[in-house]
Structures are given as structure tokens and as C-alpha cells.
Amino acid sequence: MKRCRSCQREELDDQAHFCSECGGVLEEIKKGVDPRVNLSRFGEAFIDMMTITFISHVIPIEHLYWLPGDRGSLEFDRAMILFIIYSVIFDSVFRIGTVGKIIMKLKVVDLADKEPELWRLLLRSVFKVVSLMLWFISLPMLFVSLDGRLIHDRLAGTKVIFKKKA
């Protein structure tokens, strides 16, 4: 299968050299994940953690008294819930991606590279916390797996790719 460099349209005809839609040059679609996506996901995670830290200082976590958690785990529990709310709002409700994804030009798609259903995005946001807790498994998966998908992407049937140029 080949993809047009200009319009990013996929061509099924392996013998074609030019896009049937725009006339742009076709290139082979490489199997596996673009390693730049993995590095960009590190940047995205760092930016999102800084954003959550900023939000928790603007709205101190201890003021979120209605969230569950005892005094010993209060900060961690509420930070995780805040992280889920942040992910759900930006990834699922607004569908623009988190601040980190916007800056790093990444987006979440389903396995067919289409806009994922809302339930997949919600599931992904919840499982992202599991993935964070199991970072010692998730981090190596990013580099060892052929598709670069983390635990939460596998469970939700999604993947992270670069946004296509408009």
C-alpha cells in the first residue's frame, strides 16, 4: 500500500506512482510505528503533567473535598481523578486533544486511523491511569512493541499518530 505525500490519501494499487486524486507522488507505507511519535509522546506526557500541576495549584487538590480518598492517599487519589477529568475533557468532550497533544501535533485515532468513538476515548482516559501506575511495563512497551501502543491504547483499541497537515 502507498500513501500520497501531498494529500495523505492511501492508494491500494501498489503499481501506481502518483496519487489518483491530486497527482502527488506516492510513497510506500512503512510497517510499524514512526519512532518520532514515541519521542513526541514523552514530550506530550511532560507537558500534560505540567498542565495538571498548574491546574492543581490554581484549584488546590485539597479543596476538591467531594472527591473520594482518605488523608493518607488524598493527594494521589485526587491527582489521578483530576488527570482523568483533564483527559476526558480535552480528548473526549472537546476532541481537540490534551495540551501536550496539541503542542506535539499528535492525535488519537482508532486502529483504522479514523476518529474514535466517544466510548473508546472515555475508556482510554480511564485506562491511562492504569498505564501510569504500571509505567515499568508501559515505558518499555513504547519502544519494544512494533506499533508503539501503550496499555491504555491496546485496551481501548486506539493509537497515537501525528496530525496530518491540512
Structural write-up:
- The relative contact order is 0.13.
- The longest helix is centred in the first third of the chain and has 24 residues, at 35-58.
- This protein has helices at 35-58, 74-93, 99-104, 118-133, 135-144, 151-156; strands at 2-4, 10-11, 26-28, 106-110, 158-162.
- A 3-stranded antiparallel sheet has the order 2-1-3, with no helix packed on it. Strands 4-5 form a two-stranded antiparallel ribbon.
- With 166 residues, it is mainly alpha-helical.
- The protein has 2 domains: 1-30, no CATH class; 34-162, no CATH class.
- InterPro entries: Pra-immunoreactive, RDD.
- It is a multi-pass membrane protein.
- The chain crosses the membrane at residues 45-67, 79-100, 121-143.
Summarize the structure.
This is RDD domain-containing protein. The protein has 166 residues and is mainly α.
List the helices and strands and how they pair.
Elements: E1 2-4, E2 10-11, E3 26-28, H1 35-58, H2 74-93, H3 99-104, E4 106-110, H4 118-133, H5 135-144, H6 151-156, E5 158-162
Antiparallel strand pairs: 1-2, 1-3, 4-5
Helix pairs in contact: 2-4
Distance between the terminal alpha carbons, to the nearest Å? 22 Å
Structural class: mainly alpha
Count of alpha/pi helices: 6
Report the radius of gyration as a whole number of Å. Answer: 19 Å
Can you give keywords for this protein?
two-stranded antiparallel sheet, 5 strands, mainly alpha, membrane, transmembrane helix, 166 residues
